Amino acid sequence: MTAPRIDTATVRRLPKAVLHDHLDGGLRPATLVELADEVGHSLPTTDPDALAAWFRESADSGDLVRYLTTFEHTLAVLQTREGLLRTAEEYVLDLAADGVVYGEVRYAPELMLKSGLTLPEVVETVQEGLASGMARAASAGTPVRVGTLLCAIRMFDRSREIADLAVAFRDAGVVGFDIAGAEDGFPPADHLAAFEYLRRESVPFTIHAGEDHGLPSIHQALQVCGAQRIGHGVRITDDIVDGKLGRLAGWVRDRRVALEMCPTSNLQTGAAASIAEHPITALKDLGFRVTLNTDNRLMSGTTMTREMSLLVEEAGWTLDDLRTVTVNALKSAFISFDERNALIRDVVLPGYESAR
Asked: Which keywords appear in this protein's UniProt record, sorted alphabetically (predicted)?
């Protein structure tokens, strides 16, 4: 018996969790236009709808490096207290409107210093904006819990400094650490000192790996650096032949290492050919702990509702599949077991049951 098709309205109401979402990749187009005008930054267009289309088209190049160049425009408006506060608050409100009950937002403080803010001031400001957004969402009856991941840029040499920042703010909303940026030529082990320090301080971290570069990047992120999750990780399929798992793929599945998969983004960077053929479905069916994410909502023109709906429409996903990746995300979230368990038990499972 075929499961009934899930319509978009139902998907929108479902409780969701997102682990891989970049602050500088999720601005509202209209906000970007206004903030750019305030700081004197020139955009490709000042029409919000046309600007949204420009970002999507520019990100559709099939090349990760070119995809990353679109961030020069969003980062340009995230150099001031005003820009950071507004963006962080709106970020939370947009998650709440999309049915997200838990989110982790990541950003690189070292890229937000051009107007004189210090690293601690950047983090304090973002946390203030997120707190304001969470308070407003709760007042509106759509509560959402948002944790922060601080990113170091893998092409630069400030990862140990950013790790210090993650430790300093771990009781103020920062829940973990990441390295981001172009993968090829910038291996995770270049930042081993930061990862060793974070392990000593019991701060969890994820690493972008297996998107632009293959199995060696995933192996190094896990077995050399000690990552608890993998950002993207689509190339783990290189270690699976006719359903048989190699040693690295077996390690990832058997140790329940979460894969932060981002279907639309992966299509844009050339890491996957289509939604129907995206590895997330095959990996889910093989028992991997896959999670579903948006990556950069502005560049991909997406939301969690859209990502879920695409998998329903093009890959045949069911309500149970959507529940599985949501529970997977919460099981692997960088918050306490009690918080994760409460969200699963009290919010997610009842929410999916009511959708049947």
From this structure: Hydrolase, Metal-binding, Nucleotide metabolism, Zinc
- The pLDDT confidence band at residue 3, using thresholds 50, 70 and 90, is low
CA–CA dist 203, 195 (Å, integer): 9
Q: Is 157 exposed, middle or buried (0-12, 13-18, 19+ CB in 10 A)?
A: exposed
Annotated binding site: 20, 22, 24, 181, 208, 295
| pTM flag (> 0.85) | yes
Q: How far apart are the first and last CA of the chain?
A: 15
Catalytic residue numbers read: 211
CATH superfamily assigned to domain 14-346: Metal-dependent hydrolases (3.20.20.140)
In terms of phi and psi (left: phi > 0; alpha: psi -120 to 50; beta: otherwise), the region of 215 is alpha
Name the DSSP class of 109: G
What DSSP letter does each residue of 298-320 carry, written as one string?
Answer: HHHT--HHHHHHHHHHHH---HH
**Residue 18 identity (one-letter amino acid):** V
Distance, in Å, from the CA atom of 225 to the CA atom of 228, rounded to the nearest integer, reads 9
- What is the residue type of 169? F
Binding-site residue positions for substrate: 22, 24, 181
- How do residues 123-163 score in pLDDT, each as one tens digit? 999 999 999 999 999 999 999 999 999 999 999 999 999 99
Residues in the chain: 356
Q: How far is CA 284 from the centre of its chain?
A: 18
Domain boundaries, the chain: 14-346
- Residue 330 CA to residue 198 CA, distance in Å, equals 22
